[in-house]
Amino acid sequence: MGRTVGPYSRNIQSLADERFGDFRRGLARKHQEAFDDIMRTAKGHLAAGVMASNPYSIETILLSSLIEVKTTLNDMDKKFAKLEADIASIRARGIDHADLDQTSTDSC
């Protein structure tokens, strides 16, 4: 018979507390916060983690975190593209950087 996969939420907590507890304590404060964020992200993707039914929960945890990073990167790319389009539109109207600087100093 196959090995039963434990509840995903319990596996996340077990990994954070038992398996990687010493590792977390050895991290600098800012990295501990990042580690905690990764674990929170995994809990936020609980439904997907349960559906994966993976005996190696760390894979699902890391994939959940990677998905969040990629989603954030995609959002930033879209915002950056919009900013580039806005800049191109401003330049097309004949307003250059010097004009913008002068406008901002006039309003002070």
Describe this structure in words.
The protein has 108 residues and is mostly helical. The protein has one domain (8-106). 80% of the residues lie in helices and 0% in strands. It contains six helices and no strands. It has helices spanning 8-19, 21-25, 29-44, 46-52, 57-92, 97-106. Helix 1 (8-19) runs antiparallel to helix 3 (29-44). The protein is elongated and about 65 Å long. The model has no long low-confidence stretch (mean pLDDT 85).
Number of discrete domains: 1
List low-confidence stretches: none
C-alpha Rg, in Å? Answer: 23 Å
Continuous helix count: 6
Instruction: Kindly report the average pLDDT value.
Output: 85
Distance between the termini: 76 Å
Strand tally is 0
Task: Provide the succession of SSEs.
Answer: HHHHHH
Oligomer: single chain
Shape: elongated
The secondary structure category is mainly alpha
Q: Mind describing the biggest β-sheet?
A: none
Q: Strand share of the residues?
A: under 5%
Helix content: over 70%
Give a concise summary.
By secondary structure, this protein is an all-alpha fold.
Short descriptors:
108 residues; mainly alpha; 6 helices; 0% strand; elongated
Q: What order do the helices and strands come in, and which of them pair?
A:
Blueprint: H1 8-19, H2 21-25, H3 29-44, H4 46-52, H5 57-92, H6 97-106
Helix pairs in contact: 1-3, 3-5
